Amino acid sequence: MRILFAFIFIVFLSACETDDNRQRNPNLLNINVDYEISLNLPQFNNLNFPGNAIYIPSQGNLGIIVVNSGSGFYAWDAADPNLPPSNCSRLVIDDLVATSSCNPPNTYSLIDGLPIADNENEGELRYGMLSYRVTESGSVLRIFN
Questions:
Q1: Is 140 a domain residue?
Q2: 112 - beta bridge partners?
Q3: From edge to edge, which strands make up the β-sheet containing 140-144?
Q4: To 5 degrees, how large is the angle CA 38–CA 138–CA 77?
Q5: In a domain, 19, yes or no
Q6: Which of 29, 100, 125, 129 could bridge 113 with an S-S bond, Cβ 3.0-4.6 Å?
Q7: Number of domains in the chain
Q8: Quick one: pLDDT band at residue 43, thresholds 50, 70, 90?
Q9: Which domain holds residue 116?
C-alpha cells in the first residue's frame, strides 16, 4: 500500500509544471490595468461595429488597443512585444492589423495577437501581443489584467 502511495506521489510531482516552463516577455512591464469604457461615448462609438479597433493612451506599457472582432472584444497592449519600449515601438492600427514604425516594422494580427511574418523578420518575432481580459456589461467594457 505504501508503494502505491509513493508511486502516486511521484507521478503527481512529476506532472507539475514549474514557472521556468513559461517565459515572461522581457520587453514589457507587468503594469496593472483596470479601465472601463462606455460604448455610448462618441470616442468609443466605432467599437459598436465589428472589425473596428481603437487606441487608448495612458494605459498599459504604451497604451491599449481594443478590437471588436464581431464575436467579442479583445484588448491588447499597444507596445510591440518584440522590442523594448521606445518612440517607434508603439503599434499603430491599420484595419485589423497593428504595426510598429521601427525599421524593419513588426506587424501583428488584432484578432489573435500573433505576429504576421514577412521576409525581413520571419522567424525573429518571438512574442505575441500582450492581451488583457475584457468583460462586457451592457454598454460598458472593463479591460483588466
A1: yes
A2: none
A3: 34-38, 140-144, 131-137, 73-77, 64-68, 52-56
A4: 50
A5: no
A6: 129
A7: 1
A8: very high
A9: 31-144
